[in-house]
Amino acid sequence: MASGDTLAIFTPYHNEPPSSIYATLDIRNGHPTLDFDGTTDEEAVFTGILPRHYGGGGITVDLHISFTSATSGNAYWQVSIERMDDGTLDIDADSFASAQGVAGNPNATSGVMTLASVGFTSGSQMDSLAAGEMFRLKVRRDADGTAGTDDVTTDAELIGLQVRET
Amino acid sequence: MAVLTSVQRLAIRQICGRRLSERREGFNLTKADLDAAIAATDSWIDSSAASFNSALPLPARTTLSATQKAELFFLVASTRYSG
User: Fold this and answer.
1) Which residue of A has its CA nearest to B15?
2) ipTM attached to this prediction
3) What is the pTM of this model?
């Protein structure tokens, strides 16, 4: 397949909440959202299978986000990949690769979504994930600003995300 | 009573953010700005505690505990300014 092709789509109901610091499910005008706290880092996790037509060119993760009330400021997001390769990974422990970060800031109008895209080069950034293999994808809001600027006090919302070939 | 610790002030900021988010109330103060407001409020309470106590009539001034006086202040303030 070609650059730009969609590889996976996840929405809030696909979330597999971690045991702690999990983003919480909410509804906004009928739209399911995952709410990420403004002070404490929170995470959402999604499981998928990388399609066999993935061409090996790396992936880009598009986050469709909004904010409960903020219309200015900065928020920082981190995405990481865990390869679940058969015959190797022990799923009793997490083994996500290092996160890649991206700024995803509020729109000037509350309720208008922001698109934040973060790229992963083929190889270690993707935890060496290959076509046909299972994977987990973790989305974290860096609310405490450890890795990037996050000065929005209130909740951020993840409406959906897309994985596409870079 | 001494001013709140940084951990306590952070917890207040988190509660503020949570309540504003639940109400979907427009709010664009940065975390740093809100932290400054929380610190200033805490300092004002600390420096004004004696004055508030003196304003209370007897027997409330000598009968209520410090916690009860604080709750009284909170209830009156929140009722005055509730939307």
Assistant:
1) A39
2) 0.81
3) 0.91
